[in-house]
């Protein structure tokens, strides 16, 4: 029986190469991009960086852990709505009102009780950092302890995303189907000022580099090796005395943590959050970028997410109805013929270039003598 096809392993680059890569990325994000892009394009790139932050977490959970996470829209939406609630309360305070503008239109005269804690910036930041990861831990323990995995876990996570979007639509106290929008300030800074919008791009770029650095440490640590072992041989890891459920929960919570931060940054950058931004379609779009870029690599998800988002923006301007079909076709081609993604294909090509073509193993020669 032939051996099963495995994704290419992640080789650890040297310190010099790692520092050079981070320096080049910082140069591009903090110097080159602001110099050559207009304010509109720079804000668009900041939006793409938020998607890349989500993609890094998916790469860790799916690429290294084998968990097909189709529900990242839930954690992205949690971070986004928590930030949006704080911004709407702050804007109402600037106008001298007690409730946000959309509540006044809906006839709501008092701030709901669950809105009140998010008037504090500190509480909002802590909630953004803790709540998505906490929800992921609770869900992960409930799912992985029961040994739910594979397609069943993917369907369950997608169903959770659909339920979350439907729940948001039915809640008029958080905007309903229209969501929350028209934010005027961000922690005391005016969002109408182009300098503050540019500052948000730098914040998103810094967060992305920090997330990539943290993920790199996880991938190349002993935990990263254990996560790959759980992906490939879960039962063998269990026989060695480890609990695969706990290993998976850590990666799943880390991905949720990244998604929550990305959602919180998305709100002031884009200026709106609605159920359409956190439902099934956005969750699948996150996954498509990771798959195309290369889910087993460190930078593949980042480049894939940014590339797919840029292609969607560029092509949809000229071919609005054709982009969806092109995106689906690209996803099918990559999954069918390049399961490791474009970055994985490049890695495999470099490895073959270093080692050279495989040489056939010669047959052993024996001298046959007649039996006497």
TrEMBL record:
Compartmental location: Cell membrane
Signal peptide bounds: none
Sequence intervals crossing the membrane: 20-37, 44-62, 115-144, 199-219, 249-273, 285-310, 322-345
Species, as recorded: Rhodococcus aetherivorans
UniProt keyword annotations, A-Z: Cell membrane, Membrane, Transmembrane, Transmembrane helix
Region described as Disordered: spans on this chain: 353-372
Name by which UniProt lists this protein: Urea ABC transporter, permease protein UrtC
Membrane topology note: Multi-pass membrane protein
UniProt main location, coarse: membrane
Keyword Glycoprotein: no
Pfam family, one: BPD_transp_2
